[in-house]
Amino acid sequence: MPQQISRLLVLFVLFTLGLVIARHYLVPKTFGRLGHYRAAAIDSIVSRNVKYVGRTTCATCHEDIAKMHSVARHQTVACEACHGPGAAHMEAPMENRPPAPRKRAYCPLCHGYDPSRPTGFPQVDPVAHNPVRPCISCHNPHAPEPPVVPGECSACHGQIARTKAISHHALLPCTRCHETSQEHKVTPRLSRPTKPRDRAFCGECHGKDAKSPKEIPRIDLASHGERYMCWQCHYPHDPELR
Amino acid sequence: MSQPDKSRKPTPSQPPKLPLDRRAFLKKGGLAPFLLLVAKVAPTPAGETAPPPYQPGEHYYGMAIDVAKCIGCGRCAEACKTENDVPREPFYFYTWVERYIIKTNGETAVESPNGGIDGFPATITEQGILRTFFVPKLCNHCANPPCVQVCPVGATFTTPDGVVLVDKDYCIGCRYCIQACPYGARFLDPRTRTAAKCTFCYHRVTKGLRPACVEVCPTGARIFGEVHLRTSPLARFRRFNEIQVLKPHLNTEPKVYYANLDGEVR
Fold first, then answer.
1. Residue A162: what pLDDT?
2. Is residue B120 part of a domain?
3. Which of A153, A238, B232, B265 would disulfide-bridge A174, Cβ 3.0–4.6 Å?
């Protein structure tokens, strides 16, 4: 064999050996076992901690709530959808108490009116629907029921009742403004409820020096639209909604 | 069990009973380790038996999304961020919810403020809207994934159960996969400077749990399960609904199947 060939051969062998050694140290151990990737990466991803434990796990301790919840309208809503991940709570139940959203801002995430939501999904206008009161003061979040129709006036005057229910006057009972005799229920047209007759009536709440809560808007009866009755501009069942 | 022995032992003047006692003692002694084993197993709930080791080859996962059921509450995006420790900044999402507003003049507006986690602004008027709906989006876990093709180092890959994952310890952060993904499902994690994306909650599904977004979805708009198994909720959903995928013309063969999808959705 010519000398130059044998030298080249030695160089080639050394080069190949170097490559093999470098490859041995540079390529991860598990690379290529399952495909063109590190098989060990799967293990490191699998070993990550689970934070959402699932509703069946919640039910092992909170049996009573789970039982009520399982037949209620919210049965498809997971515990952890509202209460957040439960893994930490499972390990130390008392130290890591999961939060319970009690504010009015939370429920409208699902139930606030949005034209993009599917038709038929229960929605309310969070601004007009019983303002200020927390949702949970009327609705049990674990077993919510659709609103009960107040048995009295709305049985016949549903449209007014529904309009009023989402208005700023929602919390006023009908009888605050309309004196209604018991006979009205039997012979509605023969004994009609009263209607407010003067501006002073609205002034009882909205007058400048009325003794009503101070969140209620105030006007000066003497200077505010003095030629008109209040309800000629403001619809009392739905005042100033738009 | 030990009661008769103890009552027997103190009875005097019966030496022949002694060998029996020894036998009983040995019997119990031999049983003790097994009893201990039983005692250790017993406190776990009855339904929870030791899970068989996970066999990736026996599964092939997919997800279905019923657009008509999505109420846009964003609980999926919130749960996903918590479960997977995704950066809280509003540009990083494994899954997010988009609101489509298609107007009568033909314009289509798509928005996703903070992925829908904080809800959607209620400022839109109903005037001039033709159709409007929510579309949850996530990595489509394509059967023919462009992101895996372009990765120069093999840091992103498809597992035998059909989940596309990122090896964050091997990723060099070159962003090729982010460019290649036609669905915008990938981002560069600002903490590790590596690519990140939805994992189908691989750490959960390998333990027999459902992905976090599926777990918390209040209306059941997301369905997770086996693609090939006929008796899976996913297969049932695909049988009963008209199914579409996103950008079918790209031949990525997504495994996230949409029902009631509008033609405007990209």
1. 82
2. yes
3. A153
